[in-house]
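During data preparation, we tokenized the protein backbone, and the record follows.
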Amino acid sequence: MNGTSDDGSSDNKAPTLDNVSFSTTNVNTSKASTRWIDVSFNNLTDDISGIANASITYQSPSGNNYVSAYASVEAPEVLSKSTLIDEMQFSEYAESGNWTFNYMYVSDKEGNSKTYFRNDLDNVPPDITVVNGTSDDGSSD
């Protein structure tokens, strides 16, 4: 892909992302089935080369750990996608407490990208509350 549209204009703008939504914002790590969150990247739009990917990263309460969701579009030149979905998985021993939004990233097939930090957004994605279901002796509650 050369990054130029049929009308001769070049692609120098990153895709836009309207918002992100989650299947839940509460995680219980005691069972494998409750450690996953579906993340929906909503209303992605690109101008010329097409959407390549979107990701979001959250930071643990201590600031020492991160968890991410990353979704990509394999088809060429997809200029609009109502929803792109991926999963965010927390480990069995993930820190309890509120995990906070760290950043989002979107890019197109030409390599144009934009990173959104807290200060860049009017509506910052919500915290994710994690309850670690493992007791000190290693058994589940």
Remarks:
- The CA atoms of residues 52 and 75 lie 9 Å apart.
- The longest strand covers residues 97-108.
